[in-house]
Every structure is written in C-alpha cells, then in structure tokens.
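Dear Dr. V.,

Thank you for agreeing to look over these. As mentioned in my earlier message, I'm a first-year student in the group and I'm still getting used to reading structure tokens, so any feedback on how I've presented them would be very welcome. I ran two proteins. I've put each sequence directly above its structure. The first is here:
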Amino acid sequence: MSQTARSAREKVKGFAWLLVITFALWLALISKLDWPELVCGGLVCLIISLFGAGIYSKLGLPPLNIKRLLFSLVYIIVLFWEIIKANFDVAYRVVHPKMPIKPGIVIIKTSLKSDIGKLILANSITLTPGTFTLDVIGDKLLIHWINVKAEDIDEATNMIGQRFEKYLRVIFS
C-alpha cells in the first residue's frame, strides 16, 4: 500500500473516530433525545470532525482503535484514583505534623517513545499531589517528591511512574 493511500486511510479513520467520540460526548451532555437536538448535535460533531481530523493527524497521535480507547478510559479512572489517594496522603501530612516529610528530587526512566506520551506521563505525575515533574530529558523525568522513599532510578520509577506508564505504553505504542 502506498504512503498516500495509507495517509488518506488514516485521515478517514481519524475523522470517523472523532465523529463517534464527539457525538457520544454530545449524547452524554444533552438532557433528552429529541430529533432536533440529535440532528443539531450530529451536524456540529460533523463540522468539528471535518476540521479536527487534519489537526489530529498533525499532532502525531496514534490512530484510535477499540483497545486504545478502552485503555484510555481505564487510564482516566486510574489517574483519578491516584489523585484521590495522593490528596489524602498530602492532607494527612499537613494535619499530622509528625508524619515524615523528606522532600527531594529523583530521576525516573520511561520507555515511552512519543513526545505526547511523555508529556501526558509528566502531567499525570504533576497532577498527583506530592510529586511534581520538573523536566523531561530524553527518557528520564526529573521529579520533585514530597517524601522520597527511594533514590534508586528503578525503584523510584516503579513507585512513581509505572502506575501510569503501563497504560500509556499501550495507548501510545
């Protein structure tokens, strides 16, 4: 298959996925399933998909498929759960002054190859209270950690990044 045909096929696939996702989002947001709302939503989603499909392909994101979509949904649930756990941990450290706080900077490694995957990993780590991504250099992330439990790269990677990376690896492979 030629590169042009593959590129055109990926654009059509991206358009179709974008249309399905935006329409599903529209259905989740409307209060009742009336024909005028469905037609209006369908037209708006069609217009968004027509303009967004080109942008989607330029971002270098992997093509969508069912497996990636399901892993993305699981990833969002895992991310929210980790944010909730980290919030309680940090809040308890603030309220209970005898809780250990050993701040420091650690380095973790990532096996993610795409820049967008590394960006999402770095932002996910930053969103969980108690950790903050300072920099991404190649396959390493510089992390400020409120309570350093491991200074070894492999141990710190398992404790901080692995909980997110196992899902991101599937989504961005």
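The second protein is here, in the same arrangement:
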Amino acid sequence: MADRSLRGIRLGAQSLQSEEGVVFMERTQTAYTCDTCGHVTTLMFAADAEPPATWECRACGAEARLQIDGKPVEVEDNGDKSGRTHWDMLLERRTRAELEELLEERLAFIRARRGAGDDPTRERIGA
C-alpha cells in the first residue's frame, strides 16, 4: 500500500518555476523629487517606456517631479479640466435662483407632508 501513496510538496514551500531561459526587459532607474519635503523617490521603468512627469511622494503624499540629469522637469499644464463635482454639473444646468426656488418648493412639500407647517405649538427637536 505504501507504493501507491501520493507524494507531493508542502503548500508554499517552493516554486516549481525557474528563471532559466527568461530574458528580462531592459530597465532604467527614474528619480522623482518632492518639492514639499525634499524626499527622493526612485522607481524602475522599462527602458522604452516614457516615465510620467509627476509621481506621488511616498513620504508625505505630495506631488513629486521627475528629475532628468539631476534637474527637476517643468510640468506642463495641458489645460485638462479637473474633475467636476455634482455641484458643478448642477450649476451647468440651472441658475442659482432656480435652485433656490426648487429648494423652497421641496421644503414646503416636506413640511406639509410631515405636518410641521406653521404650527407654533409644535416643539422643534434638535437645533
């Protein structure tokens, strides 16, 4: 019965793959300097890849700029719009006066539904 037992290795013990015959891509080392804290972040990119002009600083989270030959690269503002908020999109569709009018209508509807109209005997809860 011992000759029919299954044999194996422990889970996670060793990889069965090897690096034999694998050709690694050529890489270049790229440095980014943080303007806020002066921390230098070093990253590896493929040699044929264009590194981004900015990277998040690992020390403080601020924006770090790419360094080429020890000098920081000037970041070009390409005019892309920043992310729009819900408020920005709302102001594109309606004016502020229209929004205030809609707010008053909705508040009146909610107050009428709750029965909290102009009843002075009713005590307010909260602030």
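From my reading of the second output: Residues 36 and 108 are 50 Å apart (CA to CA). Residues 83-116 form one domain. Does that match how you would interpret it?

Kind regards,
E.
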